[in-house]
What does this fold into?
Amino acid sequence: MDNNYALSGRSKLSYALGAVGKDMVYMLSASYVLYYFQDLLGVSAIAMGVILMAARVFDAFNDPIMGVIVAKTKTRWGKFRPWLLIGTVTNALILFLMFAAPPKLSGSGLVAYAAVFYILWGVTYTMMDIPYWSMIPAFTQGGKERENLTTLARTCAGVGSAIITIATMAVVPMLGKMLGGVEGNAGEIIGFKFFSLIVAALFVLFTLLMCINIKEKSTVEMETVSVGQMFKALVQNDQAMTVTLTIVLINTAIYITSNLVIYFFKYDFGGTGWNDAYVLFNMFGGAIQVLSMMAFYPLLRRKFTSLQIFYICLAMAIIGYAVLLLLAFTNMSSVYVLFIPAFFIFAANGMLTVITTVFLANTVDYGELKNGRRDESVIFSMQTFVVKLASGVAALAASICLSLTHLQSGTDVSAADAVTDFSAAVTLSQKTGLRMTMAVIPIAGLVIAFFWFKKKFILDEAKVAEITEAVKARHAEV
It folds into this structure.
């Protein structure tokens, strides 16, 4: 790589914009596909849990293979941009079709539809996600330059996630009423169809701008390896394995809550204004998440290392869930009380998404020094896989909770649609099961992540600087 090359401000902005669109798509799928098929269309919770988990197992084979394909790609447009564009266009189309299930489908046909399109969504998302994140170590020399680009990308990815968190259930019912003339579940079904179309269009537009403005002037040459060699390399990179397992544990905790929070407001918090309370809660949480990446993290970074901030964030998340667990034994009649645990959880999640990506990027240099190979796409294929694996595990856990608590409205609740007070028929035991799942399992996952990471991770700032210099020296000798 040309040591004098640095991404321009325009390129950085375009790269960041790509992150916004990418995570808008991901958050829409991760947070609402279970709700769309299970609660609105009536697919059983267990069936959806199996589908979502099976798709992630399939990705265990698809993601690493995609990493090798990207590493071997050589075109006049570079190795990353072709896959970014192809993956984005196909994923946008699949996203729309996934949230536009034909109304005549039911039973096994609807289950098959959900399975096919969710698996295709995962495959096409991988096609663009791996090359996107592989650009970080390929375009930077390590240290502050890499951390700054990672922070920018992760911050904007958080903005994309926050947009979906805030806007989805504010816009979906409105679109259902405007374009379908109906409210309640029927209106939400129509609303999700057109909302996914809007998100898909923005996704394509942002990626296109990124591909136009980012020039692959001198990407790092990556040795192409077989799938067998690749898995061996991943096992040999103990730091990459440490970070990815930590990401799985953290994201599983967060995604369990994000999958169930809409059910909490609909069936537990309840009332005819449950959607307004849900939107208000998400507006607060989304704002805190973005603020944590744009303000909290930079402020903390002035006094603490990334590793210290990581432990601070884990403690914040655990405290947030502990408060939520305590609130589970109270009435929780005010949405504003829920802002207390939301602050700790959303703030921690925002900063953790930045920090863990920095850690993973640093394992690329570590792997090169240890194994003699610089496997950006291979390492970042792990990130794509583990994030989606966490989503699948969380969805399965959420579906088991929903099945045991019998929380599902389906399409046969027209009477409830008239008043939208779904909590009236929910028992205390159902509410307790929902609340406990949202709090206890995430706490356990975060505690395990803390002890695992503390025991295994060695790439503090001094070690990273040492490795960066050693890699530079090795390149100079070639």
